[in-house]
């Protein structure tokens, strides 16, 4: 812990020298620490671990952190500063922007203390828990077919991209440990979970200090009088940079399908990445950042965490083949949200399906407008939904109660230091707990 605190102190000092500041004064003189005016590093055990707290009372919408372009870790700045890297990359332009950024990151790590970014790189997480890092046990523990498929796809995609980039890394003469798939997964997870949107590079950028903010889902922690914008779309795979603000920018200047960070953007007039308070915060409260609207599976896939209460979570409902033929709604719109409310399109599809075939044409406009067709029809729809959801739950290997017990056991295990204590705690648990211990010796 002391070593980590020392590394953090060095980072904040380095960041101050780079012009990163949380001061609201445009020409504020640089100090030994880039924080202290608006933000401070703190620890939140129950809410993301290390994060940023308000150093004073903050007002929604005010500027709280500014990171100049020269302090952003981008492919552009790395290629400009290293001719060897630039020449090698130019021979492999078939690679995606995110693959190139991943290689650049591993290349800088390989430089060790000689890297200009060493102070920042030393404080990056040593491991991540995104879906691409999941082994057989973790994938099966997801239980839901869609989630297992997403994990398998993520692992396969990461391995494919690594193999495509291996020749470039060999040309750069990276150390053997940095050529490994394990190293690729680490760098890929760093890019996936920590990059932020910039207009000049699809891969995004790593933003020192700006990446210390923890996540808040849109709709979570908002004040009751604040509306939540419904922003759809996101950056294409393989990299999902955290996009742009919606609270503080002119929507006509930005494409909502490419920009989904609601609390910050790169501003050309000050040549810096600027972050704004998404809410009013009291001194000492954690200041959170919204990366965009995600389900828990999406958060796990790209950022390596999930929320106990995610207002944007949803469960997709599989309809019978014939049900899709009587409506034009896409399958991804057929879901039940976090509060158990069926989506608009799911209700419309089911209402039409429960209507006799010879009557569907006459009531189709009502179903597509979101209207109930009749009391009996609505009862049939709700019975179908109830039975379908119950069937999905019963098909899973464990129940919600069993999962709660498992989580409780894991919490206890983390505080146990002897084999006898561990055995005592696990005596009441079987199944996944034992399988987990067997998988990890």
Automatic annotation (TrEMBL):
Domain of life of the source: Eukaryota
Matches recorded under Pfam families: SET
UniProt feature coiled coil, ranges: none
Domain SET positions: 37-292
UniProt xrefs under SUPFAM superfamilies: SET domain
GO MF terms, alphabetically ordered: protein-lysine N-methyltransferase activity
InterPro entries assigned: SET_dom, SET_dom_sf, SETD3_SETD6_MTase
UniProt protein name: SET domain-containing protein
